[in-house]
Amino acid sequence: MINASDLFAALALMLVIEGIIPFLNPGGLRRTLALLAQLDDRSLRIGGLISMLAGVIILYFVRN
Question: How far is CA 8 from CA 2, 36, 37, 53, 61, in A?
Answer without folding.
Answer: 10, 29, 30, 21, 20
